[in-house]
Every structure is written in structure tokens, then in C-alpha cells.
């Protein structure tokens, strides 16, 4: 990313060739992370299977890069599944058992049917989903294939009071469900799964160890009912570092979030966001570990022996961490003007759906490549004075602010400048992408 940022000619070529915005991607960092995570597990003597959570980025190139590196995939829709099956079909590498897990939050009949017929493991979230699976199985012609399923565990509320989640089913209810499946020749329970979205504090390795220990108890209880559970899936949520150092993150928290000590009032006069919006729901942008170090901290010898003495394989499904460093989004400045309140507005040739998740903001600062860096002297008519302002985009609403934060441009910003938003491959570039106003989707270019 820094190489590209320091090559304005190349950046300009990308925009000329592919339009604005353009997503620039590479799967090399993903390969390196896979290798490092595998090394951590191998050093601990722990059987590990890594699955890329495809929902983090729609590009099939990541599947293509993952298959020869012996990873599996977590799919969340029929399209993701069909595409992944197609890639395995066209590959010389044999998939391992349960290499595709379907964790879709809503599973239409067609998706369930496809999973069953293609021997893809369904992660069953609740009793109704199991009932739908049974109905689908009843409609499949004889000889009906066996549906391989894992149960999605809802972490115990008493043990994890701060972890409210809409997903999964409590252990005791799963045990009841598992008993109802025992006599059903068409369903085989092969795994236990959990995935939680962590707050900043919940990234502590101890927290994940406790979640795994809780899930191991559930494995024991399900085995007692007679099911031969082969694996435990700890989901994704591996941390990544978007920022260079902790002080940036602490400073953001102090400025952007209401101070509990002063009754929810903001500690500081906040000029930093659009319409003084509070940014409460943000991804933890700084972590004391990267994903690999964190995984090593999670896997204490005691925890590893608890997993291996049960002869379980540990599965994980990172999305964000595998895509760390795998992509950035580049857009061209189309105009710079003042709004009616005299705020400086920088119009980027993109819309807000092209760098957005369901969070309040993305805490990475864009990099501006000035036209003045361009070798073309005719372009060199910029105002280079320091200024501050907001990025606005192509949707026709007053709220179409691309990032909620005010940015300071130490060398000014002008029409024709190019703006690079780093590290957008995980979720940012695709998760909320829409074609409102019939605007085309951004091109995805792989290096
Ligand atoms: C079931 C499941 N597994 C894995 C992931 C990937 O999470 P992350 O990208 O935080 O690693 C998600 C993300 O929403 C998920 O829902």
C-alpha cells in the first residue's frame, strides 16, 4: 500500500483505466497470514483448519488463492457457495472434509438444499432452522444424502453477561435439539461452532479462551447424547491493527466518545465529526497484537491439551484478519467547495456505500496524492495551504458524507487530487456496496 501511495503515476493510471473509485487488491498478505497461523498451531501440536469468511470481501480471487494453501471457506449465501464450489471443482487440490461451512444468518430452502446435495456443512443456528432442514430433506429424492451439520452455540449469558448476541442457541437447548436428531439417519452432527463480534475489551486472549472452554463443555454434553463431534469452530474476530500506535486510538476515544464521568456529555468541544455526530459503534482500530500473536496468546498449553485430549480439530473463520493489508480504495477529487455553513467539502468520485460497513465510521486516515506531485506541470495550479474539511460523495442526500470525521489536509486538497483509503479489503469496500442511482460498482483490480 505504501509503495502504491508513493507512485502517483501508477495511481493515476489505475483511475484512468478503471474509473473512480477503484479497489486495488492483492492476496499475498493473506497467504502470509495463513502460513503464520498454521505455524502457530503446528508449534502447539494442534490440528487446525482455517476457513476464510467470504462475507468480508466478494472477490473470488481470495478463494483461488486460498485453495492451494489448504484453507476452507465460510459462506453466507447461495452465490458465495456456488462460486466456492465452482472454484473447488476447477482446482486440482482436493477439498478436506467439511471444508465449506455455511453460516448464513438466514438460510432459504434453496441454500439448505444445495448444502445437502453438495455435502457442505450447515451451521444450524436455531430449532426452526433445524425444522426447515428436516422439511428440505423430506423433499429430496431417495436416496437422500446425509446432511452434515454443526450447532451454533450461544455463549452462556451468566458466564459472559456483556456479550449480547442474536446468534446461536444456548447449550442446554442444543442438547435437547441434538437428542431429537439422534434417530434421524439423514442428519449427522459433526461440529460445534461459535462466532462473536467482540468489543475492544473482548479481544483479550483470556476472553476467547473462556469462550472456547465454554464451547468444549458443550462438545462434551453433545457427545454424551451420542453424537461424534469432530471439531470445534471458534469463528472469526481475530484482531487487526489499523493504526500505527495506541495513542492514536486513545486520542480518538477521548475526543469522539461521550465521557461516562460527565453524564454522557462530551469531554471536549467536538468539531471533529460531521454535525458533531458521536462515533460510538466503531471497529477497534488499534490492538496490542496482530492476529498471529493474538492466536499464539489464546492457545496456552492448557487450552491446547483440553482440545487435543478430546481429539478435536480446531476450526477458525477469520475474515478481517486474513484480508489485512489485502486492498485499498482509490478515488478522484471532483470538486472542492464550501457548504452553506462555510465547511469545506471535498467531493470524491465515489459514493458512501463503497467504503462502509454497518459501523459509524472507518478510523483509517486517507492519503491524499496531490496533483502537484504529478509530472504534468499543467496540473500544478493547486492551492497548497493547510485546510480542513469533509469528504462527500455521489448520493443525492445531505447526509452523504463518506467518512464522518473532519480531515486536516496539511498541503491543501484540490480538484484532480487522488485519495487512497488504505486497508479497505475487509468489509469496507464491499459490505454495504450498492447501485443506488444506478451507479456502477467499483472495479476490483488485482496485483
Ligand atoms: C459466522 C461468522 N464467522 C466469521 C466471521 C468473520 O469475522 P471477522 O471478519 O471479524 O474475522 C463472521 C463475520 O461476521 C461471521 O458472521
Automatic annotation (TrEMBL):
Keywords: Pyridoxal phosphate. The modification N6-(pyridoxal phosphate)lysine is found at residue 55. InterPro entries: Ala_racemase/Decarboxylase_C (IPR009006), De-COase2_CS (IPR022657), De-COase2_N (IPR022644), Orn/DAP/Arg_de-COase (IPR000183), PLP-binding_barrel (IPR029066). Signal peptide: none annotated. One of its GO terms (biological process) is lysine biosynthetic process via diaminopimelate. The keyword Phosphoprotein does not apply. This is Diaminopimelate decarboxylase. It comes from Rhodopirellula bahusiensis. The lineage of its organism: Bacteria, Pseudomonadati, Planctomycetota, Planctomycetia, Pirellulales.
